[in-house]
Every structure is written in C-alpha cells, then in structure tokens.
Amino acid sequence: MKRMKGEKSSFSENIGLIKRALSIISQLSPNMLNINLIKAFIDALTPYIAICLSALIIDELAGERNSDVLICCVLIVISGTLFFNILSIFLQEKINIMNVSFHHEFKKFLNNLKLKLDYDKMEDPKYNELHSKIVGSMFMTNGGITSIIDLITSMAANSISFITAVIIIARVLIKTSGKSNLFSSFGAGFLYTLIIIGCIALTVRNSRKESKEEFGLYKNCATNRYVDYYHFNYMEDDKAAKDIRIFKQRDLIIDELWNKARKPWMNILIRRSGLTQKYFGTNVIISTFIGGFTYVVIGLRALKGYISLGNVSQSYASIVILISSIQNLFVSVSQIISNNDYLKVLYEYIDISKISSKEGLIPKAQKGWEIEFHNVSFKYPSADEYALKNISFRITSNSQTAVVGVNGSGKTTMIKLLCGFYQPQEGYITLNGIRINNYDRDAYLELFSVVFQDFRIFAFPIGENVAASVHYDENRVWDALAKAGLNEKTESLPEKLNQYLFKNIDAEGLEISGGEEQKLAIARAFYKDAPFIIFDEPTAALDPIAESEIYSKFNQIVGTKAAIFISHRLSSCRFCKRILVFDQGKIIQCGTHDELLQNRNGKYYELWNAQAQYYQ
Ligand SMILES: Nc1ncnc2c1ncn2[C@@H]1O[C@H](COP(=O)(O)OP(=O)(O)OP(=O)(O)O)[C@@H](O)[C@H]1O
Q: Atom of ligand 1 at shortest distance to CA of 410?
C-alpha cells in the first residue's frame, strides 16, 4: 500500500533510503565514504593513546618512578598523538578537496537530471521547486545528500569511541575486582546511570525537535529561493541591463524584490540560526553538566580510596567519552532518520527524470520520412484555452512547408508538439506510420534541426557553437557557416573558428549583432544535417540582402530534407510549395502562394495585403 505523505517510514524503508544515497555518493565520489571513515577511526582512537598511557604514567609516578618506563610512555604518547594528528590533518585536507569536487559533481548530476526531464515538466513550477529545494538543502540546511557522509562518519566514530571506552572501563573493573571500585555502591551507580540516561534522552529529544523544525523551514524556503534566484539572475543578466536602465527598473526590482524575495529568505536564515542557538545552547549545558557531575562522582570515590590516582583521569575520560559517544550515537541515528525527509525530495526528483528518459524504437527511414498530425488538439497545462484545435497535416522528405499566421495562432506550439516536447490531449502524431511516443526520445530528437525564436548562443568559440561540441569537423563547420552567410566574417577574425563570443568567458570575446547571432543559429541547424529542418522566424533579424541570399539558395541547401518555415514576412514564404495558414489554433487555409491569393476573403490575402501595401 502506498504510504501517505507525512507518515513515518519503517526501519527497512529508512535503511533503503540511506543505501540509495550511499550508492549515489559512491557513483559521484567513489572514495569519499572510505576516507571519511578512516579519518573517523583515527580521530576516535587517538585520544586513547594519552588516556591509556596517562594512567600508567601517574601510577608509575606514584609508585616505582622508573625513569625508563616514564620516558618511554611519554615518548609513545607524544609521537603517537603527533603521528595520528598529522595523518588526520592530511586526510581532512583530502576530504575538503573531495567535498568541493563532490558539490561540483552533484550539481552536474542534478543538471543532467534536469536535461533528462520531459520539456513540459521543466516548465512546471512544481519541478523547479523540487530542484530548488535540493540545491537549497546543500547550502541552507544541515540536510540532504551532503549530510549523509557526516552523519555516517559521526555514527562510526561514536561507535568506535563507545567500544573503546567500554573496553577501558571493563579493564579498570577487572583490575579492581574484589576490591572497592567505582561501581561498588550499587545505589549510587544506579542513581548516576539514571541521571545520565535522562540527560541523553533530553539531548536526543532536542535534536529531533531541531531537525523537525528545520525541515519545516526548509520546506517553506524553496519557493522564496526560487523567486530569489529568478530575480537575481535577471539583475545580473547583461541583456536585461539595457531594459533596466531605459525603463528605470532598478528601484522597482530592488524595492519589490527585497520585500517579496530577499526579506522572507533572510527571515528564514535568521530563524534557522535561532534554532541552532536554542538547541545547541541547551545541549552544551547538558554536556557540561554531565562532565561536572561525573567529575564530582569520581572525585568523591577517589577521596574514599575506591580508585587509584592513576585511574581517576582514565576513568573520568573513559566515562565522559562513553556517555558522549552514546549521546552522539543516538543523536546521529535520529538525525539520519530525519535526513531521510530531505532524501525523499531528491528521490522524487530523480524518479521523475527516470520516467522522463523514455527508451523505445529507433526511427528508420522508409524511402524518406513522413510525419503526420492526426486531429491533434493541445492545451498548455496552465492554460484554459486550446492552443491547437483539431490539426491534421502531413510533412514528408523533399518538401518545403511555410507556416504563417498572426501572433498567438499556435505556430510555435505545433513545432513543440512535432518535436515531442508536449503530448496532445486529443489526436496523435505519427512518424512513418508509428506514433511518436513509441520512439526512443533522444533518437527521435536526432531527426530535427530547429532554430527556435528564442535560440541561445553560448560564450564559447564559434566552431563549438556551430557544432554543439568541442570536437568537430572543421570543413563541415565552414560549409554550414557559408550556407548561413557567416563564413566571410569568421574568415576575417584572427582566431577564426576558435574565436570566443561575448566577454563572459574570454575578455577578448567578440560581440556580434542580433542578425549575426541568428546566422550562427542557422549555421548550427545546417551543421546538424537532420532530415527535418525547421526555422521558427529564422530571418527576423537578418538584413534584406542576407535574407534574400539565404532564400535564393534554400532549395539547394535543404535538398531532400523536409523543411518547415514559420515566418511573418510572407514574401519569404513564396518559394515554398505549400503554405499552411494558422488562425486561433486551427489550420484555416492550405495551398501555394498563388492559390491562396486567389481567395480574396481568406486570411492569407488579408495578411499579404497588410504587408504589401507598404511596398506599393
Ligand atoms: N508555455 C506556455 N504556457 C501556456 N501558454 C502558452 C505557452 N506558450 C504559448 N502559450 C500560448 O499558446 C498560444 C499559441 O502560442 P504560440 O507561441 O504557438 O503562437 P505563435 O503563433 O507561434 O505566435 P508568434 O507568432 O507570436 O510566435 C498563445 O495564446 C500563447 O499565449
């Protein structure tokens, strides 16, 4: 039966959650847990060199005072402690480097998951919030995958301390068996144990309360963090800088965002810090009380002669370590269980990505390619109105289709469905007669070269931008640049294909114009050389000469591919053998330019004349 949200997990479920986290950690940083455990082992045992030998030293001083034995003991204490402390520092340095690299790998892991997500899920605020919560847990709280190593290490260290303390105490008891010793009075020992158990229970209860309250804060922080991240990115975006200046948005952003994003976020940090102070403060008082109380108990028993002088410090240290290790062990177990709440958020995100990365058939050409829309209707998840209504059409290899229509008529939405980014609510789409859902998603996407309106050019070298790879075929890149009309400009640059763009990465990076960016995006589409080439407003930023150059050789460039052009410049569509006219999510007309113009009451005629009148 499915467990309801908020219900407690069983022991085996908790173990399963932890095991899954460990497998992710070992995948991202194979030696991280081992090195942490070795360090924990060393740190836990090092104090016992002094504890064990100090008893010998004091007893020797109080007894025979053999200088050889004393020197030998002191040397062992100093050299042993020094050696293990140096080893511990060395391992800590390694751990620090591993932590940085782990953070990097984990972010990469999250980014990969995000890239695997279905496109529609990427737009959904719920999944952005999940992502934000996971990243938030790395920086804001003590929870999540990054805490699990610390918690396991702490459990291991405390277990070692516990076992060692028990051995030492047992040794003292065996040595003093038959005589009076630390625990000879049953009543006092029992009372002491009860008080200590009470203190431990109080610490564990505090830790549970702190974890619970912190998780409550964390759950609320994600939304604030999301807003915060979004807006501060906007503030840092070079492209936004122009708008901010022209429209005097600075005050608006600072005032509004300070109140809506930054302030709640700061409040959460302050409340979290308050939580730490409250619970940490109480636990420090409890630990101090345990230490003082134990000292008094041991001191009184030493005064009565129940334990030797040498055993006072050894007994005290062992008992305090025993108590603190039991206390920390319980706290770690409680924290590791609380930490599972954070892990569940991470696993929810991973599982969504797993569902998203769909495997299936590999598309195969059958004398070419054919995609068909069968009565497709589609509504965006957040919308009330249908963006596409009962659309049917077919695109085949060796065909050029233009798509025209007023803003918001559904042209880009149709392309997004064609690429499989969204699923239609009604109807279906087929590739070579098979529904596109049955194909392997990545292999299906390989079929498309699309230049979207909101394409992105990276601050990387020109060659890498075109090939979308660090390794590329230079001849093919030059060929793609020539088709897009950007080869001469690239030739004139000293670094040519290695020329970095923009100044984000390389201070000598080249700033290019909007039209040149568009040419680069077009070159990228040509380089991919996919069987379907789709241009959504491909030449909006191009000058008339560049545009006419591209169109004049278009037939030759696209060859036998299936080409789709979305354009508001109807003159650019004339060369297409078929034009689809979209209006309010429907295809209302279909034909050649000449055919469509003959219908004087048609939308195409209206759109054509609206543009043509300015050229007459
Ligand atoms: N991600 C989205 N979520 C919700 N609604 C959307 C989304 N994208 C587009 N829409 C809506 O769907 C409708 C069709 O949009 P679409 O982008 O397909 O139009 P278009 O014909 O390409 O417009 P344009 O010519 O301006 O590019 C519009 O009403 C738009 O507001």
A: 18
Radius of gyration of the chain (CA): 35
CA distance 454 to 323: 62
Q: In terms of C-beta density within 10 A (0-12 exposed, 13-18 middle, 19 or more buried), how is residue 457 classed?
A: middle
Domains in the chain, start-ordered, CATH in brackets? 11-356 (1.20.1560.10), 362-447+531-616 (3.40.50.300), 453-529 (3.40.50.300)
Q: Are strands 399-405 and 578-583 parallel, antiparallel or unpaired?
A: parallel
Q: What is the ipTM of this complex?
A: 0.98
Measured CA angle at 469 (ends 466, 475), to 5 deg: 55
Q: Return phi, psi of residue 107, to 5°.
A: -65, -40
What ranges make up the beta strands (E) of 480-610? 532-536, 562-566, 578-583, 586-591
Cα–Cα distance measured from residue 547 to residue 485, given in angstroms and rounded to the nearest whole number: 9
Q: How many CB atoms lie within 10 A of CB 220?
A: 14
pTM beyond 0.80: the answer is no
As a whole number of angstroms, the distance between CA 279 and CA 204 comes to 10
* DSSP string over 319-339: HHHHHHHHHHHHHHHHHHHHH
Ligand 1 pocket list (CB less than 6 A): 123, 380, 382-383, 387, 405, 407-413
Hey, whose CA ends up nearest to atom 1 of ligand 1?
A: 380
416-446 pLDDT per residue, tens: 999 999 999 999 999 999 999 999 988 999 9
Whole-number Å distance between alpha carbons of 344 and 350: 10
